[in-house]
Amino acid sequence: MTKDPINILLVDDQPAKLLSYEAILQGLGENLIKAGSARAALEHLLKEDIAIVLSDVCMPELDGFELARMIRNHPRFQQTAIIFVSAVALTDPDRVKGYSYGAVDYVLVPIVPELLLAKVRVFADLFRKTRQLELLNAELERRVEERTTELTRANAELERRVEERTRGRETAWAQVLQMQKLESLGQLTRGIAHDFNNLLQVISGNLEILSRRLPDEVDLKSRLARAVEDVDRGRTLTERLLAFARRQNLKLEAVDIPKLITGMTDMLRRSLGPTIEIAVEFEGGPLTIRADVNQLELALLNIALNARDAMPDGGRLQIAVRREDVKAGSIQCLNAGEHVCIELTDTGRGMDEATLLRASEPFFTTKELGMCAGLGLSMVYGLAAQSEGALCLASQVGVGTTVKLYFPVLASLIEGVFDEEKGAAEANPKRDRLKAGDRMGFEPARSSCRSLEA
């Protein structure tokens, strides 16, 4: 391994001595730089990276001791080796003075060439080893700094993941509690609805009997008609309660969503008023699901009316329908596969997190007492769950609210169920798909969970 030569500065006011030093040391293979005075030596020191200074003691203007003092006072030359050579200052006090000024050795004349060569070689090797140690130390510090940076980054990433996992578990636990609460509410609501429906049937039956036996008096007939209307309103309330409890009787059929929404557009415009712009967009196809068309229309109307109430000064309602390939676990209580997503986004006041969590609970409303029964979104939630779909809500205060309804694509529900009719289905896909769907037994979904998107 080749070594880079180091710089050795030879300082003496007599050129003959400089030549003799050069002759002795040239076998080292180092760069030998000659200076005829202390001032010239200082100039070389400032320009070159000097490893060793071999200097005479007695020189005009500045002697070797003053040169050594000036070298040691400079922070750059603290580690530079200084060797004095003298034929005049030979006493022990002179040698002590030389060492006190920072010399590492003191050579007396007459010089033994081999001894001087050995001394200079030792200090040259020491300089190289010191320089190597400095480089290794710098490299070690660099690696330690890089490693520390990596560990800091890894620790920050670990803390972020732990925080994210903890937040995810807290969110999941909150959703579990919310689902349990909704399940309990559903069971309670179902029982109340059935009991209430039984009472309404008794009242309705008795009203019918009274209508046959009462005399034809206008006042009595008017009171009886109002009582019948109240019973009908009670039945409507019961149906909404059963919708939330997912125990209503649904008439499942193939529903073309674009056709359904296109047919509802005029009604929605009249219901929402001229200050609200309605935009409809359909992406991909086919967009056919299996649902109760009347209940679905009512659900979409309820969502649209909620959007209208959230935009008293006008705004925009965007209705987008598209197919989505839902991955397993991405939306709670929704099976993986192709789904139709009906997304309704308004530019209204929006909801805070606390309101959003309770939005689909029965009887929960932010409107004034008597303005709303609080069963609109709960009915939508029950319809989606009973149709093997899901309801997703997202809202931001001052920005608006997005309601997403997911329903399985009709083709994905039928595929593989009636393999014996595959040939007939290929011959007439529309007819056989509807026929197969009519014979499918859709049980009400038992899961009570919903999906809330932040």
Structure, described:
The protein is an alpha/beta fold. The protein has three domains: 7-111, Response regulator (Rossmann fold); 172-243; 248-452, Histidine kinase-like ATPase, C-terminal domain (Heat Shock Protein 90), CATH 3.30.565.10. Helix content is 53%, strand content 18%. It contains 13 helices and 13 strands. The strands form three sheets. The chain has a six-stranded mixed beta sheet. It has a five-stranded parallel beta sheet with strand order 2-1-3-4-5, sandwiched between helices. A hairpin with a 3-residue loop joins strand 11 (390-396) and strand 12 (400-408). Helix 5 (113-213) packs antiparallel against helix 6 (218-244) and helix 7 packs parallel to helix 8 (293-310). The longest helix has 101 residues, at 113-213. It starts with 6 loop residues before the first strand and ends with a strand. The model is unreliable at 412-454 (pLDDT under 50).
Can you summarize this structure?
The protein is an alpha/beta fold.
Per DSSP, the total helix count is 13
Order of helices and strands: EHEHEHEHEHHEHEEHEEHHEEHHHE
> What level of helicity do the residues show?
40-55%
Unreliable parts: 412-454
Oligomer: single chain
Q: Give the strand order of the largest sheet, numbering strands 1, 2, ... along the chain.
A: 7-9-10-12-11-13
Work out the strand percent: 15-25%
> In the CATH scheme, what's the topology name of the largest domain?
Heat Shock Protein 90
Major β-sheet annotation: 6 strands, mixed
The top level CATH class name of the largest domain: Alpha Beta
First and last CA, distance: 66 Å
The whole-number mean of residue pLDDT values reads 79
Do you know the CATH architecture of the largest domain? 2-Layer Sandwich
Question: What is the CATH homology-level superfamily of the largest domain?
Answer: Histidine kinase-like ATPase, C-terminal domain
The radius of gyration computed from the alpha-carbon positions, rounded to a whole number of angstroms, is: 48 Å
